[in-house]
Design a protein that fits this description.
Structural class: mainly alpha
Order of helices and strands: HEEHHH
Number of helices: 4
Strand content: 5-15%
């Protein structure tokens, strides 16, 4: 009796898993093609075995990076790991040109560090404010 219940449940699960595959195959057999055309480019015609769905965009978007690949988020989220790791190079440094309260001449590197940080921030802001070429 238990064996019959287990076999019945296994058959039901197998039938349930086979149905979505059949639906996906039916859609693939229909041959639906979704394409993007720009400006006044003609949209390809549908045939008996293939349905063509066109999305028309303005000509200015032809050579533009697709939205899915455009950088988004804040500057900190887009910053590379190499740039983030660069700030860790001077952790623990002491002595001359280190900008630390420890060791002789530790204060001498503070002005250089502030100048470099301001220059990097200004360059990063200029890069972020520059629109992409069209």
């Amino acid at each position: 009796m238990r064996l019959a219940i287990i076999l019945g449940a296994a058959a039901a699960v197998t039938a349930g898993l086979a149905f979505p595959q059949g639906a996906a195959q039916a859609q693939a057999q229909r041959g639906i093609a979704e394409i993007v055309v720009f400006g006044t480019d003609p949209c390809p015609r549908s045939s008996d075995d293939k349905i063509v769905v066109c999305r028309r965009l303005d000509e200015r978007f032809r050579y533009r990076m697709p939205e899915a690949y455009r950088p988004n988020g804040s500057y900190q989220e887009r910053q590379s790991w190499a740039q983030r790791a660069k700030s860790l190079e001077t952790v623990g440094r002491t002595g001359i040109n280190s900008c630390s309260p420890v060791g002789p001449g530790g204060h001498t590197g503070c002005l250089t560090q502030v100048i470099n940080q301001a220059r990097n921030e200004r360059n990063a802001q200029a890069d972020a404010d520059t629109p992409p070429p069209q």
